Amino acid sequence: xxxxxxxLGAMALLAVSTLANAFDLQQLSEQLAKPDVIHGQFIQEKHxxxxxxxxxxxxxxxxxxxxxxxxxLKTPLxxxxxxxxxxxxxxxxxxxxxxxxxSAGAEQNRLFLAVLQGDSSGLQRDFELALSGDAQQWxxxxxxxxxxxxxxxxxxxxxxxxxxxxxxxxxxxxxxxVLRMQDSTSGQPLSEAEQHDFAE
Amino acid sequence: xxxxxxxxxxxxxxxxxxxxxxxxxxxxxxxxxxSANLMELVPGTNPxxxxxxxxxxxxxxxxxxxxxLVGHADRQQAVAMAQTLGEQWQASGLFxxxxxxxxxxxxxxxxxxxxxRLAMLSADDRQLLSEHPDxxxxxxxxxxxxxxNGFTLVPSQDxxxxxxxxxxxxxxxxxxxxxxxxxxxxxxxADGKRWVLLRARTTGNAFDMNLPLKVADLLQHSREQAxxxxxxxxxxxxxxxxxxxxxxxxxxxTWVGGGATLGILLLLLLAxxxxxxxxxxxxVLVGMLFGAVACVALFGHMHVMTLVLGSSLIGVAVDYPLxxxxxxxxLKPWRSWPALRLTLSGLxxxxxTSAIGYLALAWTPFPALTQIAVFSAAGLLGAYLSAxxxxxxxxxxxxxxxxxxxLRLAERLVQLRENLLEHVRTPVLLALLIAFCAGGxxxxxxxxxxxxxxxxxxxxxxxxxxxxxxxxxxxxxQFFLVRGANQQQLLERQAALSERLQQLVNLDKLQxxxxxxxLLSPPSQQQQVREALSKLPQYWQPLLELGxxxxxxxxxxxxxxxxxxxxxxAALAGPLGEPYRTLWLGPxxxxxxxxxxxxxxxxxxxxxxxxLDLPGVMLVDRLGELNNVFAATQISAAELxxxxxVLIVLVLIVPFGFGGALRIVALPLLAALCSLASLGWLGQPxxxxxxxxLLLVTAISVDYAILxxxxxxxxxxxxxxxxxxxxxxxxxxxxxxxxxxxxVSNFGLAVSLGLAFSFIxxxxxxxxxxxxxxxxxxx
Lengths: 200, 779
Known about the structure:
The complex is a heterodimer of chains A (200) and B (779).
Chain A: H1 3-13, H2 25-33, E1 37-47, E2 55-64, E3 68-75, E4 79-84, E5 87-92, E6 95-98, H3 103-116, H4 121-126, E7 127-133, E8 138-144, H5 147-150, E9 153-160, E10 164-171, E11 176-185, H6 192-199
Antiparallel strand pairs in A: 1-2, 1-11, 2-3, 3-4, 4-5, 5-6, 7-8, 8-9, 9-10, 10-11
Chain B: H1 4-27, E1 34-35, H2 49-64, E2 65-72, H3 75-92, E3 95-99, H4 106-115, H5 123-131, H6 133-145, H7 163-170, E4 178-179, E5 186-190, E6 193-202, H8 211-228, E7 232-236, H9 238-272, H10 282-299, E8 302-303, H11 304-310, H12 313-317, H13 319-325, H14 336-362, H15 367-394, H16 405-423, H17 426-443, H18 458-471, E9 475-484, H19 487-506, E10 512-514, H20 523-534, H21 541-546, H22 550-562, H23 568-573, E11 584-588, E12 591-599, H24 604-611, E13 617-620, H25 622-682, H26 688-710, H27 715-734, H28 742-761
Parallel strand pairs in B: 1-8
Antiparallel strand pairs in B: 2-6, 2-7, 3-6, 4-5, 5-6, 9-12, 9-13, 10-12, 11-12
Helix pairs in contact in B: 1-10, 1-15, 5-6, 8-9, 9-11, 9-27, 10-15, 11-15, 13-14, 14-15, 14-25, 14-26, 16-27, 17-25, 25-26, 25-28, 26-27, 26-28, 27-28
């Protein structure tokens, strides 16, 4: 199952959540729902228990409200990914190659997009959501509820200000993944090439 | 008037009857000895013991499991309802196991994956590893960075080479069902709804008499309950077919039996205008009793289908009393014992010929027909005995004054025939009839299919198809049986078969298959993987560059080299082995055996070709075999028919001479031919069952020919007797034609047609042999 999607899902869920708080999920979701398109750079750190230093990869991402997500890995190897309603696709040469749906992964993916479209029921059923901080600096913690998920990971932490900054996944096995989203901007519309990528 | 022997007979018979009733009581001491197992009815094709075991293994889930889809537009509501129903069903006590969610045991999965790193690697991955080790390493590096690679059960430091991830990804997908990780439910998405899979396994199987009905009731109750929450249920199970079959049999028995009874009673009352004449129904009841007792005594139980078809015996059994009751039109005054004496020889001949006809059915390879034959023959004997021994005593003081209109009708019919014969001579009529037959026979088409036995309602098959479409689970009754001298050979043979089946899947001719070679590779392949791995250090530089410690890689390699070769039993023991367990048949007399199961509609002949030159592989297609047996039986049934005719001719030579006997038998045969032709003209297919029906008609209608030839009481009276007999028989058999089971309805149609033609042709049985001794016997 794809935890990464899960966090992105959680992130997008905030756009629709209706809980009330000092700085509540409602406000956070409104804040995150504003931009139609977010461009940014990411650094992914994979901390494996047995490795002295993390596996680091970098690239750009584009999150478009009505389309999905482009994840363009640049270093140490180049690989483009796309998540849309149709599933996860990988760019193979010039064409997008839809990856075979692994049973759990595909469901995750669907969940993610359902959440993007405003269906919060899935995430709220699977996770306890806890929010702290204020609009400029907040932290959201997701703790899995279901037995199955608890066997896979302990917690997901999401930090941010105006936009999401860090996503941290803590697996039960001791490994963890940190995604840092940097220089995110919401002013720029989709470029022609990006539109083309989503349309294909 | 009454002979001394005739005073004793009723008492002797009553003693016999009492004994039979006592026997029946003993047979029914533990409830009705009824069975609804369809497979008991179809002919055995004598598969060998292993094949039989394999078949039972494959059949078992069909007869014990129920697959239900709980559907709602909202996933959560569907899951909640599945959970509610699951708990209710578990509490019902009908099920051994009800499962709506997956309780994945992740630690056990991890252990199995790590343990099976050599044995469970797919063929593609093995090839990549040995032929392109550099690409193998490159892909591993990519996977480590890939955020969408998905979650792997085994942490990277336990499996730097990523073998467990490859094994996980190469597991065959089971249908289109997805795991809902929140609830653990299995969910499919179709028609705008979320469908949660609910599986239940019953404590007994579909052939327990009460279980299917209870399960069907529970399902119906659950459907109503779910509908209140706007949740839709779809269900498929052999149990539901069994329940439906039982309900249908009960319904049809009521209709056919009840309809025939009412019709016959009405006919008796209209014709003879005496309440006491309803006693003529006593032989019918006695006949049913004898039939049931004989059936249970010989087979241990009685099939519901025997009851349905056997209920048509009513019409034949009532013919015995009708034989002498109808003499009331000529015997004046009519007294029971003299009338019986007058017709006794005819009655006896009729019993013998009918019994021959029925017992001929017993020699077909169909257990169902054997039962029906025994039921009917014993039933006829009971009816005959009670008609001869008991009924005359019951009717001793009755003076029959039958209505005159039936006689006038018969006279008019006789006159009509005379007039016809004046214009058109018999040879011309015969020529016309033969032309009619030839024309019809040309159009006759033969059709045989085991599905004719099952009157499955559209609703059930529709639901099963919808479930197959939504989930992708579409088990087929065909499967491959694979044998090998040892596990190595067995797995190699299954792999060779899988390779061919995969081509069919790629061509969309097959939806999928499941074989042990998908779970693990043979020992020799495991050894090859071990060897390929030992060359890997030359290529793993990219992994070292990522920072993976050399020592870690070396330790892992050492572990892999030391993994023992995994055998089938070990692989099946783990959680990943679960779907494969039914396939493994284990050691046999000459090695080991396993099955390859199939999914999705397919073409049996295409499948058969796949196994042609693969040693140790055979397709088991019981349905196909049965259909072949059906076709072959058609021929043997025709032979039986001729044989039974020869036997009847031999019996009839004594009273009628060779020419007379031949003529009497030729008429029913001609009638059967006409019925065949009519089926052709009507566009109805000739099935094995219509043929059986005609086989029976020959036996019954010999009766009519005898009756007409004997001419006790004149042509019109004999014709009337024949008409009454034919009508009562038709009332019971003809009603079978409305059955929703194609086999039964075919049978009914064929008998109805046969009876009509037999009646029409009966007057040609000749009329001069018996001296017209109409009035004398009354003296």
